[in-house]
Write a sequence for this structure.
Protein backbone atom coordinates (compact mmCIF):
# COMPACT_ATOMS: atom_id res chain seq x y z
CA UNK A 1 0.00 0.00 0.00
CA UNK A 2 2.72 2.43 0.96
CA UNK A 3 5.32 3.84 -1.37
CA UNK A 4 5.00 6.21 -4.28
CA UNK A 5 2.01 6.26 -6.54
CA UNK A 6 3.92 7.12 -9.63
CA UNK A 7 4.54 4.67 -12.46
CA UNK A 8 7.46 6.74 -13.73
CA UNK A 9 10.28 4.56 -15.07
CA UNK A 10 13.69 6.22 -15.18
CA UNK A 11 15.03 6.51 -18.72
CA UNK A 12 16.81 8.68 -21.26
CA UNK A 13 14.78 8.16 -24.40
CA UNK A 14 13.56 11.01 -26.55
CA UNK A 15 10.14 10.62 -24.92
CA UNK A 16 11.59 10.92 -21.44
CA UNK A 17 13.34 14.13 -22.42
CA UNK A 18 10.39 15.65 -24.29
CA UNK A 19 8.52 18.59 -22.78
CA UNK A 20 5.70 17.27 -20.53
CA UNK A 21 3.23 19.35 -22.50
CA UNK A 22 4.22 17.59 -25.75
CA UNK A 23 3.58 14.21 -24.17
CA UNK A 24 0.30 15.42 -22.72
CA UNK A 25 -0.92 16.62 -26.11
CA UNK A 26 0.26 13.34 -27.68
CA UNK A 27 -1.73 11.32 -25.14
CA UNK A 28 -4.90 13.37 -25.46
CA UNK A 29 -4.88 13.43 -29.26
CA UNK A 30 -4.15 9.71 -29.49
CA UNK A 31 -7.18 9.01 -27.28
CA UNK A 32 -9.38 11.44 -29.21
CA UNK A 33 -8.27 9.94 -32.55
CA UNK A 34 -8.93 6.39 -31.33
CA UNK A 35 -12.47 7.43 -30.39
CA UNK A 36 -13.18 9.28 -33.68
CA UNK A 37 -11.73 6.61 -35.99
CA UNK A 38 -14.53 4.78 -37.83
CA UNK A 39 -13.30 1.18 -37.89
CA UNK A 40 -11.35 -1.34 -35.86
CA UNK A 41 -8.55 -1.26 -38.46
CA UNK A 42 -7.91 2.45 -37.88
CA UNK A 43 -8.02 2.03 -34.11
CA UNK A 44 -5.55 -0.86 -34.39
CA UNK A 45 -3.33 1.51 -36.38
CA UNK A 46 -3.39 4.10 -33.58
CA UNK A 47 -2.63 1.33 -31.07
CA UNK A 48 0.31 0.10 -33.20
CA UNK A 49 1.79 3.62 -33.33
CA UNK A 50 1.40 3.94 -29.56
CA UNK A 51 3.08 0.58 -28.96
CA UNK A 52 5.99 1.54 -31.21
CA UNK A 53 6.43 4.74 -29.19
CA UNK A 54 6.29 2.75 -25.95
CA UNK A 55 8.90 0.32 -27.24
CA UNK A 56 11.01 3.30 -28.31
CA UNK A 57 10.81 4.69 -24.77
CA UNK A 58 12.07 1.31 -23.51
CA UNK A 59 9.21 0.66 -21.11
CA UNK A 60 7.18 -1.84 -23.12
CA UNK A 61 7.57 -4.84 -20.80
CA UNK A 62 6.66 -2.95 -17.67
CA UNK A 63 3.80 -1.22 -19.44
CA UNK A 64 2.35 -4.42 -20.86
CA UNK A 65 2.43 -6.08 -17.45
CA UNK A 66 0.29 -3.27 -15.96
CA UNK A 67 -1.91 -2.74 -19.01
CA UNK A 68 -2.84 -6.40 -19.49
CA UNK A 69 -3.96 -6.69 -15.85
CA UNK A 70 -6.34 -3.77 -16.45
CA UNK A 71 -7.48 -4.70 -19.96
CA UNK A 72 -8.06 -8.43 -19.56
CA UNK A 73 -11.14 -8.36 -17.25
CA UNK A 74 -12.93 -5.62 -19.18
CA UNK A 75 -12.16 -7.26 -22.55
CA UNK A 76 -13.56 -10.60 -21.36
CA UNK A 77 -16.67 -8.84 -20.01
CA UNK A 78 -17.17 -6.98 -23.32
CA UNK A 79 -16.86 -10.16 -25.39
CA UNK A 80 -19.22 -12.10 -23.13
CA UNK A 81 -21.94 -9.46 -22.87
CA UNK A 82 -21.85 -7.89 -26.35
CA UNK A 83 -21.63 -11.21 -28.22
CA UNK A 84 -24.68 -12.35 -26.28
CA UNK A 85 -26.67 -9.10 -26.16
CA UNK A 86 -26.19 -6.28 -28.65
CA UNK A 87 -29.00 -4.37 -30.36
CA UNK A 88 -27.61 -5.08 -33.84
CA UNK A 89 -27.08 -8.84 -33.35
CA UNK A 90 -28.32 -10.78 -36.42
CA UNK A 91 -25.79 -13.40 -37.57
CA UNK A 92 -25.38 -16.41 -35.31
CA UNK A 93 -21.81 -17.63 -34.75
CA UNK A 94 -22.67 -20.55 -32.50
CA UNK A 95 -25.34 -21.51 -29.99
CA UNK A 96 -25.28 -23.63 -26.85
CA UNK A 97 -28.86 -24.21 -25.82
CA UNK A 98 -30.29 -20.83 -24.74
CA UNK A 99 -26.93 -19.04 -25.11
CA UNK A 100 -26.45 -17.78 -28.65
CA UNK A 101 -23.44 -15.79 -29.84
CA UNK A 102 -23.68 -13.27 -32.62
CA UNK A 103 -21.06 -11.95 -35.03
CA UNK A 104 -22.12 -8.25 -34.81
CA UNK A 105 -21.72 -8.25 -31.05
CA UNK A 106 -18.30 -9.86 -31.28
CA UNK A 107 -17.17 -7.30 -33.87
CA UNK A 108 -18.42 -4.49 -31.66
CA UNK A 109 -16.65 -5.97 -28.61
CA UNK A 110 -13.36 -6.15 -30.56
CA UNK A 111 -13.78 -2.51 -31.67
CA UNK A 112 -14.56 -1.28 -28.15
CA UNK A 113 -11.73 -3.35 -26.62
CA UNK A 114 -9.23 -1.87 -29.11
CA UNK A 115 -10.37 1.66 -28.29
CA UNK A 116 -10.00 1.00 -24.56
CA UNK A 117 -6.55 -0.50 -25.20
CA UNK A 118 -5.60 2.76 -26.96
CA UNK A 119 -6.88 4.78 -24.00
CA UNK A 120 -4.84 2.69 -21.56
CA UNK A 121 -1.63 2.65 -23.64
CA UNK A 122 -1.75 6.38 -24.39
CA UNK A 123 -2.25 7.23 -20.71
CA UNK A 124 0.50 4.89 -19.56
CA UNK A 125 2.87 6.18 -22.25
CA UNK A 126 2.54 9.51 -20.47
CA UNK A 127 2.75 8.21 -16.89
CA UNK A 128 5.73 5.93 -17.58
CA UNK A 129 7.85 8.65 -19.15
CA UNK A 130 6.89 11.73 -17.12
CA UNK A 131 7.96 12.48 -13.57
CA UNK A 132 4.79 13.46 -11.65
CA UNK A 133 6.36 16.61 -10.23
CA UNK A 134 7.21 17.74 -13.76
CA UNK A 135 3.53 17.82 -14.76
CA UNK A 136 2.50 20.50 -12.30
CA UNK A 137 5.81 22.32 -12.76
CA UNK A 138 5.33 22.49 -16.54
CA UNK A 139 1.70 23.56 -16.14
CA UNK A 140 2.68 26.29 -13.69
CA UNK A 141 5.26 27.61 -16.15
CA UNK A 142 2.42 27.77 -18.69
CA UNK A 143 0.21 29.84 -16.43
CA UNK A 144 -1.46 27.39 -14.02
CA UNK A 145 -1.94 29.13 -10.68
CA UNK A 146 0.73 28.08 -8.16
CA UNK A 147 -2.08 27.33 -5.71
CA UNK A 148 -3.38 24.64 -8.07
CA UNK A 149 0.18 23.43 -8.62
CA UNK A 150 0.44 22.93 -4.87
CA UNK A 151 -2.81 20.94 -4.87
CA UNK A 152 -1.52 18.55 -7.55
CA UNK A 153 1.88 17.99 -5.96
CA UNK A 154 0.71 17.64 -2.40
CA UNK A 155 -2.09 15.23 -3.39
CA UNK A 156 0.55 12.89 -4.81
CA UNK A 157 2.41 13.04 -1.50
CA UNK A 158 -0.59 12.84 0.83
CA UNK A 159 -2.23 9.82 -0.82
CA UNK A 160 0.52 7.29 0.10
CA UNK A 161 0.73 8.76 3.62
CA UNK A 162 -3.01 8.43 4.08
CA UNK A 163 -3.03 4.87 2.78
CA UNK A 164 -0.28 4.01 5.23
CA UNK A 165 -2.28 5.58 8.04
CA UNK A 166 -5.31 3.54 6.90
CA UNK A 167 -3.25 0.39 7.38
CA UNK A 168 -2.24 1.46 10.89
CA UNK A 169 -5.82 2.29 11.87
CA UNK A 170 -6.93 -1.07 10.53
CA UNK A 171 -4.38 -2.86 12.73
CA UNK A 172 -5.38 -0.77 15.76
CA UNK A 173 -9.10 -1.40 15.32
CA UNK A 174 -8.50 -5.13 14.75
CA UNK A 175 -6.52 -5.24 17.97
CA UNK A 176 -9.59 -3.78 19.70
CA UNK A 177 -11.70 -6.60 18.30
CA UNK A 178 -13.13 -5.11 15.10
CA UNK A 179 -14.08 -7.86 12.66
CA UNK A 180 -12.87 -7.15 9.13
CA UNK A 181 -13.63 -10.55 7.68
CA UNK A 182 -16.72 -12.74 7.40
CA UNK A 183 -20.14 -12.02 5.94
CA UNK A 184 -20.82 -8.97 3.78
CA UNK A 185 -22.83 -7.37 6.59
CA UNK A 186 -19.99 -7.77 9.06
CA UNK A 187 -17.43 -6.37 6.61
CA UNK A 188 -19.71 -3.44 5.74
CA UNK A 189 -20.11 -2.62 9.44
CA UNK A 190 -16.33 -2.40 9.78
CA UNK A 191 -16.17 0.37 7.15
CA UNK A 192 -17.17 3.32 9.31
CA UNK A 193 -14.93 2.54 12.34
CA UNK A 194 -12.00 2.41 9.91
CA UNK A 195 -12.94 5.46 7.90
CA UNK A 196 -13.95 7.95 10.62
CA UNK A 197 -10.69 8.12 12.62
CA UNK A 198 -8.69 8.32 9.41
CA UNK A 199 -10.68 11.22 8.02
CA UNK A 200 -10.97 13.16 11.25
CA UNK A 201 -7.25 13.02 11.94
CA UNK A 202 -6.27 13.98 8.40
CA UNK A 203 -8.77 16.85 8.32
CA UNK A 204 -7.67 18.33 11.61
CA UNK A 205 -4.07 18.35 10.36
CA UNK A 206 -5.07 20.69 7.52
CA UNK A 207 -5.36 23.73 9.75
CA UNK A 208 -1.74 23.47 10.82
CA UNK A 209 -0.64 22.90 7.26
CA UNK A 210 -2.54 25.98 6.09
CA UNK A 211 -0.86 28.12 8.74
CA UNK A 212 2.58 26.72 7.88
CA UNK A 213 2.00 27.57 4.23
CA UNK A 214 0.69 31.05 4.98
CA UNK A 215 3.77 31.78 7.08
CA UNK A 216 5.89 30.86 4.07
CA UNK A 217 4.07 33.31 1.81
CA UNK A 218 1.74 30.86 0.08
CA UNK A 219 -1.08 33.36 -0.38
CA UNK A 220 1.05 36.32 -1.42
CA UNK A 221 0.09 37.82 -4.78
CA UNK A 222 3.62 37.83 -6.19
CA UNK A 223 5.08 36.34 -9.36
CA UNK A 224 6.82 33.00 -8.85
CA UNK A 225 10.05 32.11 -10.61
CA UNK A 226 10.70 28.52 -11.71
CA UNK A 227 13.78 26.75 -10.41
CA UNK A 228 14.50 25.37 -13.88
CA UNK A 229 12.78 25.71 -17.21
CA UNK A 230 11.88 22.74 -19.38
CA UNK A 231 13.68 22.54 -22.69
CA UNK A 232 11.19 23.26 -25.44
CA UNK A 233 12.20 23.06 -29.09
CA UNK A 234 10.60 24.26 -32.32
CA UNK A 235 9.99 20.69 -33.65
CA UNK A 236 8.13 19.89 -30.42
CA UNK A 237 6.11 23.06 -30.78
CA UNK A 238 5.18 22.12 -34.36
CA UNK A 239 4.40 18.54 -33.31
CA UNK A 240 2.08 19.75 -30.54
CA UNK A 241 0.11 21.90 -32.94
CA UNK A 242 -0.02 19.14 -35.56
CA UNK A 243 -1.32 16.62 -33.02
CA UNK A 244 -3.84 19.08 -31.60
CA UNK A 245 -5.14 19.99 -35.07
CA UNK A 246 -5.36 16.33 -36.16
CA UNK A 247 -8.33 15.84 -33.82
CA UNK A 248 -10.68 18.47 -35.31
CA UNK A 249 -9.48 17.38 -38.76
CA UNK A 250 -10.49 13.77 -37.98
CA UNK A 251 -13.87 14.92 -36.68
CA UNK A 252 -14.50 16.94 -39.85
CA UNK A 253 -13.41 13.93 -41.93
CA UNK A 254 -15.92 11.74 -40.06
CA UNK A 255 -18.72 14.23 -40.67
CA UNK A 256 -17.81 14.49 -44.38
CA UNK A 257 -17.83 10.70 -44.69
CA UNK A 258 -14.67 8.91 -43.54
CA UNK A 259 -15.69 5.25 -43.28
CA UNK B 1 -3.42 36.11 8.40
CA UNK B 2 -5.86 33.54 7.12
CA UNK B 3 -8.49 35.66 5.44
CA UNK B 4 -11.99 34.51 6.30
CA UNK B 5 -15.27 36.15 6.87
CA UNK B 6 -16.42 38.86 4.58
CA UNK B 7 -16.70 36.71 1.45
CA UNK B 8 -19.33 34.46 3.02
CA UNK B 9 -23.01 34.69 2.22
CA UNK B 10 -24.97 37.36 4.06
CA UNK B 11 -27.93 36.76 6.34
CA UNK B 12 -31.45 37.69 5.23
CA UNK B 13 -30.50 37.45 1.57
CA UNK B 14 -31.99 34.99 -0.90
CA UNK B 15 -29.30 32.65 -2.12
CA UNK B 16 -29.08 31.99 -5.84
CA UNK B 17 -27.27 28.88 -7.05
CA UNK B 18 -24.51 31.01 -8.58
CA UNK B 19 -23.77 32.60 -5.20
CA UNK B 20 -22.34 29.23 -4.13
CA UNK B 21 -19.46 29.80 -6.55
CA UNK B 22 -18.75 33.40 -5.59
CA UNK B 23 -15.92 33.41 -3.14
CA UNK B 24 -12.19 33.18 -3.39
CA UNK B 25 -10.65 30.00 -2.01
CA UNK B 26 -8.61 30.75 1.08
CA UNK B 27 -5.46 28.85 1.95
CA UNK B 28 -7.34 26.45 4.22
CA UNK B 29 -9.74 25.55 1.41
CA UNK B 30 -6.80 24.97 -0.96
CA UNK B 31 -5.10 22.73 1.61
CA UNK B 32 -8.36 20.83 2.07
CA UNK B 33 -8.42 19.73 -1.59
CA UNK B 34 -5.46 17.28 -1.44
CA UNK B 35 -6.83 15.89 1.84
CA UNK B 36 -10.20 15.26 0.19
CA UNK B 37 -8.38 13.54 -2.67
CA UNK B 38 -6.57 11.32 -0.18
CA UNK B 39 -9.91 10.53 1.54
CA UNK B 40 -11.33 9.48 -1.83
CA UNK B 41 -8.40 7.10 -2.23
CA UNK B 42 -8.53 5.76 1.29
CA UNK B 43 -12.30 5.21 0.99
CA UNK B 44 -11.77 3.14 -2.12
CA UNK B 45 -8.78 1.29 -0.66
CA UNK B 46 -10.73 0.36 2.49
CA UNK B 47 -13.69 -0.82 0.40
CA UNK B 48 -11.26 -3.00 -1.55
CA UNK B 49 -9.59 -4.40 1.58
CA UNK B 50 -12.96 -5.21 3.14
CA UNK B 51 -14.00 -6.73 -0.24
CA UNK B 52 -17.14 -4.57 -0.39
CA UNK B 53 -18.76 -4.72 -3.83
CA UNK B 54 -18.80 -0.90 -4.15
CA UNK B 55 -16.38 1.79 -5.35
CA UNK B 56 -16.86 4.32 -2.51
CA UNK B 57 -14.32 6.57 -4.20
CA UNK B 58 -16.07 9.92 -3.83
CA UNK B 59 -16.48 10.32 -0.07
CA UNK B 60 -13.77 13.01 0.00
CA UNK B 61 -15.36 14.77 -2.95
CA UNK B 62 -18.75 14.95 -1.22
CA UNK B 63 -17.22 15.96 2.10
CA UNK B 64 -15.13 18.68 0.43
CA UNK B 65 -18.24 20.01 -1.28
CA UNK B 66 -20.26 20.05 1.96
CA UNK B 67 -17.48 21.70 3.94
CA UNK B 68 -16.04 24.25 1.57
CA UNK B 69 -18.31 24.62 -1.41
CA UNK B 70 -18.53 23.54 -5.05
CA UNK B 71 -15.02 24.55 -6.08
CA UNK B 72 -13.28 22.45 -3.45
CA UNK B 73 -15.60 19.46 -4.05
CA UNK B 74 -15.36 19.72 -7.82
CA UNK B 75 -11.58 20.11 -7.90
CA UNK B 76 -11.12 17.26 -5.44
CA UNK B 77 -13.22 14.98 -7.64
CA UNK B 78 -11.50 16.05 -10.83
CA UNK B 79 -7.96 15.61 -9.51
CA UNK B 80 -8.78 12.30 -7.79
CA UNK B 81 -9.84 11.06 -11.18
CA UNK B 82 -6.77 12.46 -12.95
CA UNK B 83 -4.40 10.81 -10.51
CA UNK B 84 -6.16 7.46 -10.56
CA UNK B 85 -6.30 7.44 -14.35
CA UNK B 86 -2.59 8.20 -14.53
CA UNK B 87 -1.63 5.43 -12.13
CA UNK B 88 -4.02 2.57 -11.48
CA UNK B 89 -7.02 2.90 -13.77
CA UNK B 90 -6.65 4.77 -17.10
CA UNK B 91 -10.20 3.77 -18.07
CA UNK B 92 -11.45 6.14 -15.36
CA UNK B 93 -10.10 9.16 -17.26
CA UNK B 94 -13.26 10.03 -19.24
CA UNK B 95 -15.28 9.94 -16.01
CA UNK B 96 -13.42 12.93 -14.56
CA UNK B 97 -16.33 15.09 -15.72
CA UNK B 98 -18.68 13.07 -13.50
CA UNK B 99 -16.43 13.43 -10.45
CA UNK B 100 -16.29 17.17 -11.06
CA UNK B 101 -20.09 17.31 -11.30
CA UNK B 102 -20.57 15.25 -8.11
CA UNK B 103 -18.31 17.63 -6.18
CA UNK B 104 -20.17 20.66 -7.52
CA UNK B 105 -23.54 19.07 -6.69
CA UNK B 106 -22.41 18.34 -3.13
CA UNK B 107 -21.05 21.90 -2.89
CA UNK B 108 -24.36 23.43 -3.91
CA UNK B 109 -26.21 21.12 -1.51
CA UNK B 110 -23.82 22.11 1.27
CA UNK B 111 -24.22 25.78 0.43
CA UNK B 112 -27.97 25.53 0.99
CA UNK B 113 -27.43 23.47 4.14
CA UNK B 114 -29.21 20.39 2.74
CA UNK B 115 -27.13 18.08 4.93
CA UNK B 116 -28.75 19.54 8.06
CA UNK B 117 -32.34 18.37 7.47
CA UNK B 118 -33.77 14.95 6.53
CA UNK B 119 -35.57 16.08 3.34
CA UNK B 120 -32.37 17.87 2.37
CA UNK B 121 -30.22 14.80 2.93
CA UNK B 122 -32.52 12.75 0.72
CA UNK B 123 -32.44 15.52 -1.90
CA UNK B 124 -28.63 15.52 -1.78
CA UNK B 125 -28.55 11.76 -2.29
CA UNK B 126 -31.04 11.87 -5.16
CA UNK B 127 -29.19 14.76 -6.80
CA UNK B 128 -25.83 13.00 -6.63
CA UNK B 129 -27.27 9.71 -7.91
CA UNK B 130 -28.92 11.55 -10.82
CA UNK B 131 -25.75 13.47 -11.66
CA UNK B 132 -23.64 10.30 -11.55
CA UNK B 133 -26.00 8.02 -13.45
CA UNK B 134 -27.18 10.48 -16.11
CA UNK B 135 -23.62 11.67 -16.67
CA UNK B 136 -22.05 8.21 -16.85
CA UNK B 137 -24.55 6.64 -19.25
CA UNK B 138 -23.40 8.45 -22.43
CA UNK B 139 -19.79 7.68 -21.48
CA UNK B 140 -20.66 4.01 -20.95
CA UNK B 141 -22.37 3.88 -24.33
CA UNK B 142 -19.31 5.34 -26.06
CA UNK B 143 -16.77 3.29 -24.14
CA UNK B 144 -18.42 -0.10 -23.67
CA UNK B 145 -21.44 0.10 -25.95
CA UNK B 146 -23.66 0.62 -22.91
CA UNK B 147 -22.19 -1.73 -20.34
CA UNK B 148 -21.02 -0.19 -17.10
CA UNK B 149 -17.87 -2.30 -16.82
CA UNK B 150 -19.12 -3.84 -13.56
CA UNK B 151 -19.63 -7.57 -13.99
CA UNK B 152 -22.77 -7.77 -11.81
CA UNK B 153 -24.75 -5.02 -13.55
CA UNK B 154 -23.61 -6.07 -17.01
CA UNK B 155 -24.56 -9.73 -16.74
CA UNK B 156 -27.62 -9.50 -14.47
CA UNK B 157 -29.21 -6.27 -15.73
CA UNK B 158 -27.76 -5.06 -19.02
CA UNK B 159 -27.56 -8.31 -21.02
CA UNK B 160 -31.07 -9.63 -20.19
CA UNK B 161 -32.68 -6.22 -20.85
CA UNK B 162 -31.02 -5.78 -24.25
CA UNK B 163 -31.88 -9.39 -25.03
CA UNK B 164 -35.52 -8.64 -24.18
CA UNK B 165 -35.49 -5.85 -26.78
CA UNK B 166 -35.18 -2.81 -24.49
CA UNK B 167 -33.41 0.16 -26.05
CA UNK B 168 -29.65 0.17 -25.38
CA UNK B 169 -29.67 3.57 -23.66
CA UNK B 170 -32.34 2.53 -21.18
CA UNK B 171 -30.60 -0.76 -20.37
CA UNK B 172 -27.33 1.17 -20.05
CA UNK B 173 -28.95 3.68 -17.68
CA UNK B 174 -30.49 1.00 -15.46
CA UNK B 175 -27.19 -0.91 -15.41
CA UNK B 176 -25.34 2.24 -14.28
CA UNK B 177 -28.10 3.10 -11.79
CA UNK B 178 -27.85 -0.35 -10.17
CA UNK B 179 -24.28 0.50 -9.20
CA UNK B 180 -24.84 4.15 -8.30
CA UNK B 181 -27.86 3.66 -6.01
CA UNK B 182 -26.02 1.73 -3.24
CA UNK B 183 -22.61 3.31 -3.90
CA UNK B 184 -23.75 6.92 -3.58
CA UNK B 185 -26.00 6.07 -0.62
CA UNK B 186 -23.02 4.90 1.42
CA UNK B 187 -20.94 7.80 0.08
CA UNK B 188 -23.47 10.45 1.12
CA UNK B 189 -24.20 8.80 4.49
CA UNK B 190 -20.50 8.51 5.37
CA UNK B 191 -19.83 12.03 4.07
CA UNK B 192 -22.59 13.51 6.27
CA UNK B 193 -21.55 11.44 9.30
CA UNK B 194 -17.98 12.71 8.99
CA UNK B 195 -19.23 16.27 8.53
CA UNK B 196 -21.13 16.13 11.81
CA UNK B 197 -18.22 14.36 13.48
CA UNK B 198 -16.02 17.40 12.92
CA UNK B 199 -15.77 20.02 15.63
CA UNK B 200 -17.93 23.14 15.01
CA UNK B 201 -14.84 25.23 15.39
CA UNK B 202 -13.31 23.45 12.39
CA UNK B 203 -16.38 23.68 10.19
CA UNK B 204 -16.71 27.39 10.90
CA UNK B 205 -13.30 28.02 9.31
CA UNK B 206 -14.77 27.59 5.83
CA UNK B 207 -16.63 30.53 4.40
CA UNK B 208 -19.43 28.41 3.02
CA UNK B 209 -20.46 27.18 6.45
CA UNK B 210 -23.24 29.02 8.25
CA UNK B 211 -24.48 28.48 11.78
CA UNK B 212 -28.21 27.74 11.90
CA UNK B 213 -30.21 30.16 14.09
CA UNK B 214 -30.81 27.33 16.61
CA UNK B 215 -27.11 26.79 17.28
CA UNK B 216 -25.46 28.86 19.98
CA UNK B 217 -22.72 31.35 19.19
CA UNK B 218 -19.35 29.74 19.82
CA UNK B 219 -17.72 30.87 23.06
CA UNK B 220 -14.96 33.42 22.50
CA UNK B 221 -11.43 32.04 22.78
CA UNK B 222 -9.98 32.76 26.16
Amino acid sequence: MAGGLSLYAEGHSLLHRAHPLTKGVLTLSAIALAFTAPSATWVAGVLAVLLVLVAFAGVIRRLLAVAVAILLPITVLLFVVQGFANASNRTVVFGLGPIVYYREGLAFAAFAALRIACLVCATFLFSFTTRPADISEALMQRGLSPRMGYVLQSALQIIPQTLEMAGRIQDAQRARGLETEGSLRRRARAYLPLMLPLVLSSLVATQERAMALEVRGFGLPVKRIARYAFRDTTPQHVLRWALALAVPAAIVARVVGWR
Amino acid sequence: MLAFGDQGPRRGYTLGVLDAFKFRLNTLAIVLIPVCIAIDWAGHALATTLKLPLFLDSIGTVLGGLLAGPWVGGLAGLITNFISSGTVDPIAAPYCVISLAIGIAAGIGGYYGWHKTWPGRIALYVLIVLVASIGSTPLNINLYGGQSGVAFGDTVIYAPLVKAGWPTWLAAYLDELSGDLPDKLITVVVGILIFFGLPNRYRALFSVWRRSPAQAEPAPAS
